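ugh ok so i messed up the first submission bc i forgot one of the chains. this is the corrected input, ALL of the components this time, i swear. 634 residues overall. if the numbers dont match what u have on ur side tell me asap before i send this to the collaborators (the ones from the other lab, u know who)
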Amino acid sequence: MPLLPAGLFYALFFGVPMLSLLVISLWRAQGFNLIPDFTFANYQKIIVSDLYRGVLLRTVSVGLIAAAIVVPVAFTLAYIMRFVFERRGQLILQLVMLSLFSGYLVRIYAWRTILGKQGLLNSALQWLGLIEEPLEFLIYSQVSVVITLVGLLLPLAVLPLYSAMLNVPRDHLEAARDLGASPFHLLRTVLIPMVMPGVRTAFAFAFLLAAGDYVTPTLVGGTQSVMIGNIIADQFRGTGTNWPLGAAMAFIVVGVTLLLYLAITQLIRWVTKW
Amino acid sequence: MTTQAVQVVGLSKRFGAMTALEQIDFEIADGEFVSLLGASGCGKSTLLRIISGFERPSAGRVVIYGEDLTDRLPERRPTNLVFQRGALFPHMSVRENVGYGLRLRGWQRTRINARVDEMLALVRLEELGDRDPTQLSGGQAQRVALARALAAEPRVLLLDEPLSALDLKLRQQMQLELRAIQKRLGATFVFVTHDQTEALVMSDRIAIMNAGRIEQYGTPRDIYRRPGSIFVSDFVGATNLFRGHVTQVSEAGTTLQTDIGSVALDRTEPGLQTGQRIALSVRPEAIRIARGAGSPGGRQVAATIAEIVYQGSSIRLRAVVADGPSIWVECRDDEAEGIAPGDAVNLTWADSAATLLRES
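and heres the new structure output, hopefully the right one now
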């Protein structure tokens, strides 16, 4: 019974919009008009199109690369905060939280000034004499998209990992070492299994948000960095809108990312199984 | 000569400006059950953590079975530690917990299974191997922790107040069980506790710790009967401390002036001098109680009963000396039959029951 309000909320604000989007994905668009229908033509169009498949593949790989960088780095940071700094870890957490206050767009623009042709990084490298010409690939490229996404998502991934580690008493780590575990075995057989929910959540944040982002590729990406989010967004606004096609793309993205998420978390569990 | 299982030599530990351990020297023999007893903050846990390898000493060495292991990492020491709250891995079953150290050593599965069975039988938990640690009671969890720590046959087992979270009945039962297991295995146990009864019940020897030092190291009987310092006599068991100074020392004995008046002892102790500040320690159960005036010439203290505390198997009486301190007496219920608060009594004790302690 106590679940009823939560269930209602979920149904109203998640179930209904998703359902209406699902219905629309089966309609047709004619000019600016939506024609109710029951067709899988939109899905078919996406699947057979090399362009859309290519963008989807790029989106998924950017998401996976970002997550593959974010999760281990966030894990290390959370470990240091919890077990090295102990009480002062809370202070570091506040600083991490503070960085989130500066806002999403501001942080993307900040990365632009760091990675740009005349940006901080290139200037510093030139000043140090390590390079003569600015590194072109640092901005408006796949690399800049990944770097920026990593920067954006790192604080978010630290939160679930840190809170999971707060539930791991130091005694358990010491017990493992005392029984003969090397640092590697400690990580694999005790720490990672004990913080598995946090690892899953951190991976979900990093992967799903990176794969779903469309502002970062717009602002720091190049012509070859278009992600599926950009194409979906285009279907819902401006000229050449096609709601049914956009809705179908959204569902394909949901399906693909969900499958990948399940596959990867299963893989992590399987790899750490001992 | 007996083999020394653990030798601690000149050990000191400082945390910043705070000194946790100061020049500790002591030895534990092979197969011995030794308790480190002291109040919280006395350094007993730090000493255990240094033996297990989780803390590094600021100075001094730790030698285990002749091998200097001061710089050895905990995972490479032949010691295992039983934690205060068990520290069982929640994502493993009881069996997996017990077999954890053996798997790390690369034992064959069948050999691990046999050893785990043996360990679970030792702690009488054969039935619970497939349970999760969360489904265990506090006493069961500590038994599993013990089995896990013993599975790899450590040369020295270290126990950090493993019974302190259990209720009294269970604690008493576990004390005897732990002692029986130690005897059966002939293993060397080092047990940290703040509970003096626990230390007295289980140990071959007790090291009483205070402010980073070992105050006294001896058998439970030694510690209880012949405390070496005022701190020890006060910390282990209840006692009456009569403070004062020496008024006369001769071949025949010693006379003291204390807060309960003049007390004569039929012995003297080496180095005792007139005027020296001392305390006389007499255990409550060593004091006999008699109504009215006693025989003249005997060593006795006149007092008035102020309070009687019924404790079931025994009773405690508080007697007050005129213008002096309270004296606690413990006796069987029938020995104090008919005595009531306000009664004048005489308190007597054998000279041998009184321990003379020097004020530091």
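quick check: The CA atoms of residues 67 and 321 of chain B lie 57 Å apart. that seems consistent at least. The interface with chain A takes residues 52, 54, 73-76, 79-81, 83-85, 87, 89-91, 100-101, 103-105, 148-149, 152 of chain B (CB under 8 Å).
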